[in-house]
């Protein structure tokens, strides 16, 4: 199954460190981030999950629920969380799906089809580092895939959430390397005349590129 931007995020039920997860029910009216890990007790994943735990307040501030996934069982997850908390000095509270059977990984096309060494002892592929940002309507808004060897930048994931959420509220887009609080771009569908009625300050760089202060 191939998932594209704008698709409905597939629903599923899975075991997790916080009990059985009914994905759409778990998300409720919140935004969601689903992100996968190749295996427990691996170095890059340990740093990633620690970072997400450290950023928990940032995600909650944006009404985002995070849920991790790793291709191991619950007993391994529970032991691994102790390591994650110790190594990163955090208190990991979000659920981690136990996907030893790869059901969710297959549903979301997270399995590694390129690296022949990224397999378990039975030769079954592990996941790559996939990220899905899902809005409250259960629509997929971002898909990001890293190789197993490279840890993700979760500051970038927060930045994208800020951009999408701001764009959903106002007729704007965001430029390259934009950060929360910086100037934004007037949406191309909005005329300059209309933009000047909507925003306090509109600076015309080109007819198709108009900047304005970030809406509140």
TrEMBL record:
Organism this protein belongs to: Hesseltinella vesiculosa
Signal peptide: none
UniProt keyword Oxidoreductase, yes or no: yes
Coiled coil: none
Keyword Disulfide bond applies: no
Protein name: Thioredoxin-like protein
GO molecular function, one term: peroxiredoxin activity
Task of the protein: Thiol-specific peroxidase that catalyzes the reduction of hydrogen peroxide and organic hydroperoxides to water and alcohols, respectively.
Lineage: Eukaryota, Fungi, Fungi incertae sedis, Mucoromycota, Mucoromycotina
Active site per database record: 45
Top-level taxon of the source organism: Eukaryota
One annotated Gene Ontology cellular component of this protein: cytosol
Protein family: Belongs to the peroxiredoxin family. Prx6 subfamily.
Keywords of this entry: Antioxidant, Oxidoreductase, Peroxidase, Redox-active center
InterPro entries recorded: AhpC/TSA, Peroxiredoxin_AhpC-typ, Peroxiredoxin_C, PRX_1cys, Thioredoxin-like_sf, Thioredoxin_domain
Ranges of residues in domain Thioredoxin: 3-166
Any GO BP annotation: cell redox homeostasis
SUPFAM superfamilies (alphabetical): Thioredoxin-like (SSF52833)
């Amino acid at each position: 199954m191939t998932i594209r931007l704008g698709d409905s995020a597939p629903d599923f039920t899975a075991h997790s460190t916080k009990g059985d997860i009914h994905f759409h029910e778990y998300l409720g009216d919140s935004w969601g981030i689903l992100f996968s890990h190749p295996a427990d007790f691996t170095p890059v994943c340990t740093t990633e999950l620690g970072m997400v735990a450290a950023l928990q307040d940032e995600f909650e501030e944006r009404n985002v629920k995070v849920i991790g996934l790793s291709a191991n069982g619950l007993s391994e997850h529970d032991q691994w969380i102790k390591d994650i908390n110790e190594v990163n000095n955090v208190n990991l509270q979000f659920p981690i799906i136990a996907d030893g059977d790869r059901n969710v990984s297959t549903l979301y096309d997270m399995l590694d089809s390129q690296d022949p060494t990224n397999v378990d002892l039975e030769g079954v592929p592990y996941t790559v580092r996939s990220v899905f940002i899902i809005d409250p309507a259960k629509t997929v808004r971002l898909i990001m895939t890293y190789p197993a060897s490279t840890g993700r930048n979760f500051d970038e994931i927060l930045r994208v959430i800020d951009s999408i959420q701001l764009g959903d509220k106002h007729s704007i887009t965001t430029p390259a390397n934009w950060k929360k609080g910086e100037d934004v771009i007037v949406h191309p569908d909005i005329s300059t005349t209309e933009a000047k009625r909507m925003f306090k300050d509109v600076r015309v760089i080109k007819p198709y590129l108009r900047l304005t202060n970030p809406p509140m």
